[in-house]
Design brief:
Blueprint (H helix, E strand, L loop, with lengths): L2 H8 L23 H35 L3 H26 L4 H19 L5 H26 L5 H27 L12 H17 L14 H20 L2 H32 L2
Helix pairs in contact: 2-5, 2-6, 2-7, 2-9, 3-5, 3-8, 4-5, 4-7
Length: about 280
């Protein structure tokens, strides 16, 4: 046998174009179970509700200033309290996960959002109105984090993650149109009635959440024996999770990106609308 023939026999036959012989690149994803589809719809709808809330404040700022008799410096308090809600969620999330299962965490986030919108629509005093933004951001943080966590466990997660985040964009598109229409419908403005819209959406959110995640809507049970020791172990484990997360450089890089990007866009969303309305009235 010549050296050329030997090399031919030892060579690896390349598959023809389009043939991967079971390669995952060409594998068809398995169909999503109906129960999982309902959970994905629930996760996407929670992002839609969050988008409606986040995008509506900018259009309402001129009416807030007029109704409460405040200035733009006082309006900035709302953004500070919103940040505090997200920050508090980052601290408490790991600890709550030791006691609440997935469905319970999602339901807790939905309930906090409903409560905040229920306090807004009857035109509360400004301090209470501002505090509701901390409550709603806390609820959104719990729902967003655990919705992302669930969707990332589904097959072809990248597609479903794109879908649920697209629903957030749909909410941000709808929010300003609805809030502007309601706020400008009457003179004097009854802008606070806009919050009946996210309130109704929030009720639908909690109903869908309970229906979809009923199988995990529970507390994480512990044996009655040595329950105090188990609680201490849970708290220690949660603290270790937080420490481990804080030692990850990529977490800090992503956090800084979202801090500046979303912080700037959310703030500019409101201030640009207010500046435009002020300039048009001159």
């Amino acid at each position: 046998m010549t050296g050329l023939e030997a090399r031919r026999e030892e060579s690896i036959e390349l598959p023809q174009a389009g043939q991967h012989h079971g390669s995952p690149l060409n594998a068809e994803p398995e169909p999503v179970a109906p129960r999982t589809q309902i959970k994905l719809i629930s996760a996407g709808f929670s992002f839609f509700v969050a988008g409606v809330n986040d995008s509506s404040l900018g259009a309402l700022i001129p009416y807030l200033i007029r109704s409460y008799g405040i200035n733009t410096a006082m309006v900035s308090v709302i953004y500070a309290i919103t940040f505090s809600g997200w920050f508090f969620a980052a601290i408490t999330n790991s600890h709550l996960c030791q006691y609440l299962d997935l469905g319970a965490m999602l339901a807790l986030g939905a309930v906090l959002q409903i409560l905040s919108h229920a306090l807004r629509f009857w035109f509360p005093p400004f301090p209470l109105f501002a505090i509701t933004f901390g409550m709603v951001s806390l609820g959104q943080a719990y729902q967003d984090a655990h919705s992302n966590n669930f969707v990332s466990s589904v097959e072809a997660a990248h597609r479903w993650l794109s879908a649920i985040h697209a629903t957030y964009s749909g909410g941000t598109l709808l929010g300003p149109f609805v809030s502007t229409a309601i706020a400008s419908a009457e003179t004097p403005s009854r802008w606070n009635l806009f919050y009946t819209v996210p309130l109704v959406l929030g009720v639908a959110n909690i109903i869908l959440c309970i229906f979809a995640f009923w199988d995990t809507l529970r507390l994480k049970t512990t044996p009655s024996i040595n329950s105090e020791t188990i609680d201490e172990s849970r708290n220690r484990e949660a603290l270790n999770h937080v420490k481990e997360t804080l030692r990850t450089p990529s977490v800090w890089l992503l956090s800084l990106f979202y801090f500046f990007y979303l912080g700037a866009s959310s703030t500019a969303n409101g201030e640009c609308v207010f500046a435009s309305l002020t300039a048009s009235s001159l």
